[in-house]
Each structure stands twice: as C-alpha cells, then as structure tokens.
Amino acid sequence: MKKLIYFVLALFLVTTVSGCANVQKKFTRKKKETVKMPRVYQPRKYEKKPTPELYKKHFSYWESWQSELIKVLGQNHKKDTLCIEQIISNLKDMQDILVPEKGDELTKHIERLMQVKDVIYRESGSHADKGWTLSTLDRESRYIKREFQYNKVKGYLKQSFDEMPDVEAPKVEAPKVEASGSGE
Questions:
Q1: Beta partners for residue 157, in sequence order
Q2: What residue ranges define each of the domains in the chain, with the CATH number in brackets?
C-alpha cells in the first residue's frame, strides 16, 4: 500500500510539474479567425466633358491665386512659387476647355506668366524685379478678367476634350508619270 501511495504521489507531482499543457490547450477557447472578404472593383469609364461649371471653377481658382500672389508677393518664397504654379495650371486648364481659336489667345498670357515664374524662381528680390512682376501680374489679371470671363467665352467652349484643332493635312501632289512610248 505504501508503494501505491508513493506511486500516486509521484504521478501527481510529475503532472503538476509538467503543467498538463496539452490538457490546458484542449480546454481553452481559441480566437476566431476573421475571414477577409475580397474587394471587388468594377471599373467604370467616366467621361469628363468640358462644362460651363468646370470653366467657371478654373476661372475662380485662377482669380483667387492671382489675387493672392499680388497681395503677398515677396513675403514668402514658397507661397510665391505655389501661387504662380497654380495660376499657370488653371490658365492651361481653361485653355483646354476652350476651342483652339479662343484658347490660343491665352497662350501669350501664359508665356508672360512663365516669365514671371522664372523671376520668382530666381529669388533675386530686387525692387526692379518685384515692380516688374507686380505690374505684369496686375496687367495680365485685368486683361484675363476682361476677355476670358465666362460670359465672354461661353460660345467658345469645346463639346468634348477629344476635339482636335482643325488642321488641314499637307497636300501631297501625285508624282507625274510620263507615258513611255510605243503607243503614240
């Protein structure tokens, strides 16, 4: 009997020391695995058409960036560069919405503003450069407001962005073929 008691005590000690990890593992709850649903993308083709609202939006953005640059020119170089980039970008967007004949009128103004951009990027800070820049910005602002308001260009909006300018293909003359001779 003593042997049996020693045996049971030894068995009890061995099981408590080993911890019965397998038994404990059996009776503990396992975390549920979340099943991720695959995302299904259905691409759609959106047609972006030049609309009066789109033109008005770009005109408003151009106007606000232009007036901002005129107000703060020379105070903060990063602000100046951001303003001039946005001005040119919105003018190019306006130009894309207009038919080529009317859009080409904006080209010379965009080129002048590109010169202003070069002066701003140079960061020279001289009074002459600042004066020239301000007068150029003011002049361009007045002209564009006067000539490119929506009321003046509403008849010149493209119907779609796919419209290409009416460029005539170069005429190629057919080579002259001389009759070679036995039938004359």
A1: 98
A2: 52-152 (1.20.120.660)
In this prediction, residues 52-80 reach a mean pLDDT of 93
Inter-residue contact 141 to 52 (CB < 8 Å): no
144 burial class (0-12, 13-18, 19+ CB within 10 angstroms)? buried
Cα–Cα distances (Å) from 23 to 15, 52, 88, in that order, read 11, 75, 74
At 105-156, the pLDDT tens digits run 999 999 999 999 999 988 766 777 888 999 999 999 999 999 999 999 888 8
What are 98's strand-pairing partners?
157
Rounded distance between C-alpha atoms, residue 148 and residue 99, angstroms: 13
**Among 91, 81, 86, residue whose Cα is nearest residue 133:** 81
Which tokens in the block code for residue 115? Answer: 């010169």
Residue type, 127: H
Cα atoms in the 13 Å half-sphere on the side-chain side of 133: 27
Rounded distance between C-alpha atoms, residue 70 and residue 50, angstroms: 29
Residue type, 90: N
